[in-house]
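Exercise: predict the fold of this chain.
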Amino acid sequence: MKLPHWLGETVEIGDVNLYYEVHGVGKPLVCLHNFTSNSRSRFAALLPQLAMHYTCYLVDLRGHGRSDNPGNIWTHEQFSRDIIGFMQAVDLRDAYVIAASSGAMTMLRVARYAPELVHAMVLDSGTYRVPQEARRHYKDPDTLSESLRHYYSHANEIYGPEYGRTLAEVFYSFRLPECDVNVPREALQEIKAPTLLVAGDRDIFFPADIHMEMKQAIPNAQLGIYPHTQHIVMQYHPEEVAKQALDFFSKV
């Protein structure tokens, strides 16, 4: 499926059609967005720098942007299987990756399950656990502000505004202990790819101590903490994150 105003195309991976666009030249760089976003809007401010050095694959996770989700499956486990399938389908091996929040959590699995696909990765505001004190920041769909309702209503271009309610309910469920955002810390030790963790010191969802734990657990990890910055650093400092990612990739 490709509409006239869409620059990219979709690829069928199992039960889902994932939309992606390709920009730039160079080695492959997979770009994954956060929950309720898409990779075009999330990486728009970074793309001018990234695309000068890499062929950027901007992928919409299932149920987001221009990707569908007929099975209504919302686990990060499934997200990771989708991305592995995507990379194999478009013949990406040993690729670089930059990912935000849910995209970053997805890549923690991809790097474990299919290490041959990932050369190095930059993970912005990801986590391996949701701390109990952060659960109060996940909003009940019935209590969302008008601005958040508007935001959710634009999260998927296939299913339309009413689909925003589904996304809001799924995001609210991420606060639960049984949510598969939470993985054993020991699992991070399986990651072989050089990893740069990027985080804001005012992230209300995943505080800095979580990123310190991740740095200690991932064998070849570095950590960059941005002062006075909230969740998803690239939203506030896109040019700085792009530059830091390029510097990191050039050294691995």
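Check your answer against the key: Residues 1 and 7 are 11 Å apart (CA to CA).
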